[in-house]
Amino acid sequence: MSRQLAPLWRPSPARIKRSQLYEFMQQANRRYGLELTDYQSLHAWSVQDSAAFWNLVWDFAEVVGEKGEQPVLNAASARDAVWFPEARLNVAENLLRHATTHPDQAALLFMAEGQNERSLSWSELTEQVAAIRAGLEHAGIKPGDVVAGYLPNLPETLVAMLATTALGAIWTSTSPDFGADSVIERFGQTRPKVLFSADGYRYNGKRHDTGDKARAIVAAIDSIEHWVKIHYLGADQPDSDDRVQHWSEWLRRHAGQPLHFTAMPFNAPLYILYSSGTTGQPKCIVHSAGGILLNHLKEHRLHCDIRPGDRVFYFTTCGWMMWNWLVSALASGATLLLYEGAPFFPDGKVLWNWAEKTGMTLFGTSAKYLEAMEKQRIHPRDHHYLGALRTLCSTGSALAPEQFDFVYRRIKSNLQLASIAGGTDICGCFVLGNPISPVYRGECQGIGLGLDVRVYDEQGRPLLEQPGELVCCNSFPNRPVGFWGDDDGSRYDAAYWQTYPGCWHHGDRVALTVHGGMVFYGRSDTVLNPGGVRIGTAEIYRQISRFEQVADAVVVGQHWHKDERILLFVKLVEGERLDGALKAAICRRIRNQCSPRHVPDKILAVTDIPRTRSGKTVELAVRNVVEGKPVKNIGALANPQALELFRNLPDLKE
What we know:
alpha/beta
């Protein structure tokens, strides 16, 4: 695997020395008598002495809480190490700490389709959190209880989460585009005592009422003792359920209450997140209070250089871990930019208009969004002033090399482009950017600090510049506590620890580069295997994205005559046709840019491509339909009806 040697972007010496990562490195040198000079040496030390590294992260970030004397117990075990066993803290207290120093500054700005913009100062946010926390306590909620949100990305959602965690309870959420059955499958496992819901949301110019779905959820989950309704659209129907209470009433009744924070053990549960569940019942992944806080402070302050006064945006819903990642930026003193709605309504400039208006410093999005921008010829550099923007983050799927070019040519040339990857499993990143290193085309900048990430072949041997499996061979504080309800840990072990004993197996097919960066080839369980040659789906998607006639695509393998053949399904732009010339052009490009092995055996047009609600392509679900196997959980999909387009196709029987 050869890589382009010239970087697309290199930080100036002044920018490097202004960065918090540089200051952290100097503090490490002074405290431990080191001579760290660049990211590579810093990363090596952070792995060799991870206890000292995480101890310094706590001090550098000025975490509010009692740290204790011992950073880690059983440090040699990647699976069983216990971080900061004596520590006690409260996450909400850390996220709201800047209310005491900057009470009148904006803690969040909110924009949504069809509504006026709103804002909350630090003092206003704190007052609302205090009132809702008092409401929860009055409702009998105690530390360790579960509180759920079935909510859009609203300021009220943030308030409810902070109030829950201030009390020491556990927060879990899904977005309102989930159907009732999908929510019941998730919350039914975690048994919340309180449900917060809104009456609906707007998306792509359409109004979506969710009152009936919320009523079905409350009726199905008997653990819910209190149902708090938020009138977002202002049209919810009256409800006779005696569990129903109203957000505005809670705020009024408990106004003026002082805000108390319940100190919790470092490893106490904070969040429950859910896997996509496209191959079975969703896993309920439990994340710890201290692990999430400390890791997000590391990622935000050291890797993204987020600092007080910054304005941080990520396009996300409350059903994706990037929402949890985004809201943690409060702990760094940043102003959150919350957006609720479609990213291309009323047009593709909507998010960039907001970026310019707010002085956005970090813009977070998905690789799919950047690809769509390129195809729609949306060029912010030509019509927006983005002087404040320092960092652009992309995740959700592999960022194609061509999108790196697009960002620097059409968005901003002096910008840290951070292609980041990790996921719900760790509520954070294994690989991400950093403000002191160059950006190379098609590569994530590097492995996260404190993480001994390697690439292994099937026998557990390390690889360089060759595709293999992403593993992490040391412990880290944000390793999940486990799965909710998995009392003996068997599901947790099967998910991460059985493939390579002693190492976390993440399930991504990747390659390390000579720069210390990483290239992603797709999920391991969707790797194609024609003739015994392993091929990552991302390699094919990168080539398909270059065709303006193709709006979307999915590629899967099909068992065929004791081997496997590659099937490519394309959704065409309106007015385009999949004729022989287009098929030939696709095959020619894939053959020339990848290899003859990558060329699809069949190319078929479909009218839609199924995706999860966070926008990820579901190759396994499509493959199961193609091969006549059941799809266990279609509720995880944003458009489950699209799966029927792949069933019993005559072209796939020959």
